[in-house]
Request: fold
Amino acid sequence: MRKLIEFIRSVYVVALFVALEAVAVGYYARSTCYTQARLLARSNAAAGAVHGFSAGVRRYFSLGTENKALLERVAYLEERLAQYDEAANIARLRKYMTEIGGSKYRVMTATVVSNSINRTQNFITINRGYGDGVVPDMAVLTPGGAMVGYIIDCTDRYSVAMPVLNTSFRASGKLEGADYFGSVYWDGADPHTVLFGELSKYSEPKLGQEVVTTGFSQFFPEDVLIGRVERVSMNETRTAFTVRVRLAAEFSKLTDVILVENRDANEIIGLEKSEGVEEYIRNE
Amino acid sequence: MLRIVTYSLLFVVTVLLQVFLFDNLSVSIYLNPLIYVAFIVLLPVDTFAVWLLFAGVVMGATMDFLMGTAGINTIATVLIAFVRPFLLTNLYGRDDLRDGGVPSPERLGHHVFLDYLVILVVLHHAVFFTFEALSWSHALRTVVRTIASGSVTVAVVWLLTRIFTAKFVARL
Reply:
């Protein structure tokens, strides 16, 4: 009798173990990077305050370099603005602005509250959410204007962004000054470099050449700096280049970011899914 | 009763250490120590297998929620919680375990405790990093990550054990 109870007990534990593992593996198998971002966004309701405090401390120590980067950016923009003022007739500019109802892009700033670079699926949490006008699909850039990633989920006060340092990240990029484009992704190895693949073999990537975003992406404005060419190699089938790109953004020191919303994105997506276009696809 | 309070405290401390210190290291992709396994390692040696599994689920699910990892922590933690009784029996022998006590170098002997700790940590980290990478093409990288992060975890858990058992003795 005792043997029987002993046996039932051991089998019961094994069965419980198998059931628990099955549930966990099942949940993981069905999860996407969006599930993970949602978990992070929800847990931030609890952990956000402490993360915010430690981010504040970290931020204080990087204020100097941050300030310098911002000043450089201000100087650059001042210069651009001056060029604009000279070139554009002010009256025509005003008319132009009223016609399209403001710029195509809406810009705001945010502070990073938590950020990892030591996983294969990294995420960045920032301290602005729906309440501040942040919405999924907004582009995230460094204060210097280099690409970081895009927002994938928000709560009222926080948002989670998928940085380029996430193996699920995809964006299109092109060589500065040339129209050859390819896709930008991370292989999970080095947090300072990403891969720029499927680049036409007729392009001529040079070491140090800048890689920027294309205008095709629904997330990023055109010509946002991604990084610089570090190493060029042919892919296995010798049909295209795979380029290793040194990132312009320094992810381990990221404290403040700029968010950019493409106001036309919804309109463009709506148009692409409109009946006229759909009908054409069906007929094909 | 005292036991429940002490272990709740240990749970909170390991979770806080993991989330606010070790998850923010951001030094290298090879350094991601998962020190919260200390909670499973330090449960009393006479804990029932069912309670171990329960502790594994609670700890794993908490870490999944806080780290945003959708199940990998639970998979790895439940596995080591399941393996733990068999490991202790094999390394130490069944009879003496019924007397209870916290697994520590004093209770099990330095050699046995180190073996026990290293096997649990390596098993946990190997499962975690394999599931995170989800591809055999990164096998070498997974091995390096397991060894690098695992050694840091073993060191930290050893330290936590000393602190935890020292406190325990002083209070009794």
